[in-house]
Specification:
Layout: H1 4-15, E1 34-40, H2 49-60, E2 64-69, H3 72-78, E3 82-87, E4 93-97, H4 103-123, H5 125-128, H6 146-149, H7 152-158, E5 162-165, E6 168-171, E7 174-176, H8 178-189
Parallel strand pairs: 1-2
Antiparallel strand pairs: 1-3, 3-4, 5-6, 6-7
Helix pairs in contact: 2-4, 4-8
This protein binds heme C.
Heme C binds near residues 127, 128, 140, 143 and 158.
Length: about 190
Amino acid sequence: MTRVLPALALAACLGAQPPKLGQRAPDEFAGKQHTLLLIERGSCSPHSAQVLNEAAERLATLETALVVASDAAATAKYRSECAAFLIDKDGILRRAGRPGPQARDLVDFVDLWRIGKENFDLACKRCHGVDGNLDDYPKIKKLGGIGNRLTPEEILSRVYPVELTRDEITVRSHLFTRRELDALIVYVSGL
Ligand code: HEC
């Protein structure tokens, strides 16, 4: 009995945690696509059917399926009544947030992450590895799970961006636009 109790307490505690970035999402979605999961319930002002249809069409071009859940089980699992979760094709949670009301806000939520990945692969992968966890390079730090311990602002400060102009920023001698840099931080946060 004494051995069971701590285990139960731990399970209850884990159950109360919101899903973590860079870790397996509570749901598995079939197919070789990413999933944008919207949890919309209760106080949440839901996206209209028209917005969802338009977003679904545009997300399909980004290899992403749109799924809306408004049942109590989903809100319990994701600890939220009103949020969006980007789950990649391998079932890993990559981004959580509250996109705006328009279709383009939903599309952008996924697109920014995608742009971030492209730039990470170009400028960062050779040292940090494809999943951010390579540690061959001297004194390097693993990036996996970084979004759970640091805010986007803190992550940004740790890449030492050098602002040339308002829209031209270099990081480790790669030139980025503001949007590309934002995207990079979104992507790194989900590693
Ligand atoms: C030449 C190898 C190299 C490249 C390329 C590189 N990094 Fe790093 N990165 C490092 C090393 C070494 C560290 C640890 C020392 C430090 O913090 O600067 C690090 C640290 C970091 C940290 C801080 C991690 C922490 O836990 O504090 C972040 C975030 C990061 N890198 C992101 C990036 C991003 C984004 C890119 C691409 C734009 C990138 N890195 C490109 C070598 C590299």
